[in-house]
Write a structure and sequence with these properties.
The protein has about 800 residues and is α/β, with parallel strands linked by helices. It contains 24 helices and 29 strands. It is about 35% helix and about 20% strand.
Length: about 800
């Protein structure tokens, strides 16, 4: 069944080991080769999956997304990662987490190596304990008293600490790796071992043999005998082993490693010392960028600082090994930092030799921020002129847009489902409708930014105003809908917001031409950079972490996309809805002529839309009536698959397939039918199983309708109207950035108003709070003042 099995007896192997190699074994019956592993397993919260790994070494990875293909990986643990804050003893929790992640990757079939610090700290802890114990015994014998005098601990020499700590450190690693059925071997080296050709060959052979046997080598500088570091002693083209940073780089290149992960106590490489006011984390570092970086002091422990790490990383990169420097001490990320890096997530600083053709997403975020502020500073007529210009370009450049869309459609044929293909498609009529909607936005934007909402006279000559302002920078992520791009761009322009757009790759050609036209329209007033299209390889999850650049995320796509973004967003609000489970209640007093038209339009006009009908609630008295038969016949003609709710199924001898869940968004020609006794039961059902999106009632009884309208707690509630009306364009908003089911800021179709927030302006004349105290000479008036009338033309 398994291609090959290893036992943990190492007698034949030990004769080849160098004197400074200690092999630790784990007692278990057999060892499985990586190639024989097939099943998915899970330890703790880290998924364990096997991955096909094969790569010819020679050139480093160009992009983070390629790191998942790394087979041979070196993880370097800095002193600050391994040791406690008091620098005396090990951070056991962090070490256990790191060992778990290394074990997961090892059992995926990768070849893992650890370069670890910590022997000095562990030895310092042991020696301090021995010294205190020895001193206390001597004092007790000398004084004959139980009370001990204050004891001074002498300064401990680092080499002695290393000698005392190496065995204990390795024993600790051995105990931890045992929990995951993994063998480990200790190797101690010095710089001289790399200068001796025979020793280098022996080291190389030993490491390869350990990796072949699926053993994790744990490597450290032999600090018990290592000579003091000599500055500027690098040989030509070869890095000297002065510390574990240079050791890790040297080993990575010697062993033709795919990836070197350097864990420290900072998030990565900053353009100035971390903690300084203007310090920014560098996402990707390229050779030659050293001049743009100001290095600070080294960490609280360890031999080298960030400058040493960068030097070692660049040397490894030149040797064909990709490098990531990241934080291994932060409690929120240390439990998955290594696996996140290997999965290609945006963690730490990635060293790459390939510079992208365009700006990074961080640079695009900064451009959107500054461009948005310039946009907000324009006159309302100027912003409206930009939108009118974009509307004209959509019709004037129709042929180019449709040609680009045709390429997308041809590439998507056979890969996308029919509803998604329909969303992807553009047509002349769609472009004309887009242009009409954009002109509506331009007309309604005249007094959107800077509109006065409230005026208050606080005191004499002290007046307060509340005015509308842009939110800042919006990130809109959309799937398969290129027509979304000009709509959202126009709303962002009208509201003075900077905009980052991330479209699906299936619409790449269409999005590119539409973005170029948007920037052309923006150029007439010099704000071209306000709208940016993200074309880099950033995953959506990475974009959701840019909390210092993005103020609001608006997802437009499947319910799964929205849920993923809501889960991934850290510190950034998300406006949207995860599901569109829309209901229609057919009351006992519903009009026969209206019901079938409303149900057909709500379900069949565009079943993939988030405002399409998913559950039809029917009053019990309508069962076995001509009206009910008409509804069923219409659904059969439209080829709608019916799922019976539990109560509906109980009324039927031969019922359709019973619904698996009453909380289902089908997004297709499928519909759940359930029976209710009255309007209150319909409302209760909607509150229990709905998504607060759009719900409708069909009835001729005005009292029943108003009760439904007032008591259903959804973003949109309709009477005798199709659920498909829940749309920004149909509401007269011109367009929408999405439909929100949240209960704060904006709800329902979100148009121009939903992209604005407010700020307070206070105008005074040398007013101070102390003048309004008990003994002051001023009193608060708090008078409401008239607000300028809004231009509704």
């Amino acid at each position: 069944m398994l291609s090959q099995v290893y036992h943990c007896g190492f007698q034949p192997f030990k004769q080849h080991l160098l004197p400074w190699v200690k092999c630790t074994t784990v007692s278990r019956s057999r060892r499985v080769q990586p190639s024989a592993i097939r099943h998915v397993r899970c330890w703790s919260n880290i998924p364990f999956i096997t991955v096909p790994l094969s790569r010819t070494h020679g050139k480093s990875f160009a992009h983070r997304s390629e790191l998942k293909h790394a087979k041979r990986i070196v993880v370097k643990l800095g002193s600050a990662v391994v040791t406690r804050g008091d620098e005396c003893g090990l951070a056991l929790g962090r070490l256990a987490s790191i060992v778990e992640q290394v074990s997961v990757l090892q059992n995926q079939g990768r070849e893992m190596m650890l370069v670890t610090s910590g022997a000095v700290a562990f030895g310092k802890q042991r020696l301090r304990h021995e010294i205190l114990l020895s001193q206390s015994v001597r004092q007790a014998l000398h004084s004959g008293q139980n009370q001990l005098k204050e004891m001074a601990i002498p300064v401990l020499e680092a080499r002695a600490c290393a000698a005392a700590g190496q065995s204990g450190l390795m024993a600790l690693y051995e105990a931890m790796f045992t929990q995951y059925s993994i063998c480990a071997a200790q190797i101690l080296v010095t710089n001289l071992d790399f200068h001796d050709e025979q020793k280098r060959r022996n080291l190389n052979g030993t490491l390869h043999e350990l990796l072949r046997m699926n053993i994790v080598p744990i490597i450290n500088t032999n600090d018990a005998v290592v000579p003091p570091a000599e500055p500027n002693s690098d040989l030509q083209g070869v890095i000297s082993v002065k510390d574990n940073d240079s050791l890790a780089a040297r080993l990575a290149v010697e062993m033709k490693t795919d990836l070197l992960i350097v864990l420290s106590d900072v998030e990565g490489l900053f353009d100035s010392p971390p903690g300084s006011d203007d310090a920014k984390l560098i996402d990707i570092f390229y050779p030659g960028d050293q001049q743009s970086v100001t290095f600070g002091t080294k960490s609280r422990v360890g031999m080298g600082g960030m400058e040493a790490k960068v030097k070692a990383a660049l040397w490894a990169l030149q040797g064909g090994t990709s490098v990531v420097i990241a934080n291994g001490t932060h409690p929120k990320v240390s439990g998955h930092v290594i696996t996140d890096i290997v999965e290609g997530k945006k963690v730490g600083t990635f060293f790459s030799e390939v510079k992208p053709a365009g700006p990074t997403v961080e640079q695009q975020g900064e451009m959107a921020r500054s461009g948005g502020r310039m946009l907000a500073a324009l006159e309302p007529e100027q912003r409206a002129e930009i939108i009118h210009n974009l509307a004209d370009l959509l019709t004037d450049q129709r042929d180019e847009i449709l040609l680009a869309n045709k390429k997308d459609m041809e590439e998507a044929e056979g890969r996308l489902a029919a509803p998604l293909l329909k969303r992807l498609s553009l047509s002349t009529s769609k472009l004309n409708s887009l242009a009409i909607g954009l002109r509506q936005i331009a007309s309604s934007s005249q007094d959107s930014v800077g509109r006065v909402l409230r005026r208050t006279r606080i005191a004499k000559n002290l007046e307060l105003e509340q005015v509308t302002v842009p939110i800042g920078v919006l990130l809109v992520i959309f799937e398969s809908r290129p027509d979304c791009l000009p709509q959202v761009a126009a709303l962002a322009i009208a509201s003075g917001n900077g905009l980052l757009l991330k479209g699906g790759k299936e619409a790449a050609h269409s999005n590119r031409i539409l973005h170029l036209l948007t920037q052309e329209a923006l150029s007439i007033h010099g704000v071209k950079e306000a709208v940016q299209l993200v074309n880099t390889r950033e995953e959506v999850e990475d974009l959701c972490r840019l909390d210092k650049m993005i103020d609001l995320i608006i997802p437009r796509g499947s319910s799964q996309l929205v849920r993923d973004i809501q889960k991934a967003a850290k510190g950034i609000p998300v406006m949207g809805h995860s599901e569109g489970i829309c209901h229609m209640y057919v009351d006992s007093e519903a009009s026969v002529d209206k019901v079938t038209r409303l149900v057909r339009d709500s379900k069949c006009e565009y079943p993939a839309a988030c405002n399409a009908l998913e559950t039809l609630l029917i009053h019990r008295d309508l069962l076995r009536t001509p009206l009910f038969d008409q509804i069923i016949d219409m659904l059969r003609v439209e080829q709608v698959k019916i799922h019976a709710g539990p109560k509906f199924a109980s009324y039927l001898t031969f019922s359709p397939s019973e619904v698996k869940s009453l909380r289902t968004e089908y997004g297709d020609l499928e519909l759940c039918i359930e029976v209710v006794d009255n309007v209150q039961e319909a409302i209760d059902h909607i509150h229990k199983y709905g998504s607060s999106h759009t719900d409708a009632i069909v009835t001729e009884n005005e009292k029943t309708a108003e009760f439904f309208l007032q008591h259903v707690d959804s973003a949109c509630v309709f009477w005798n109207a199709s659920t498909r009306f829940s749309d920004g364009y149909r509401f007269g908003l011109g367009a929408e950035v999405g439909i929100s089911t949240s209960r704060i800021h904006a709800r329902g179709p979100v148009g121009l108003e939903g992209l604005l927030t407010t700020k307070w302006l206070l105008r005074g004349q040398d007013h101070v709070v102390s003048d309004f105290s008990e003994h002051g000479n001023l009193k608060y008036l708090h008078e409401n003042l008239p607000v300028p009338q809004r231009n509704t033309n």
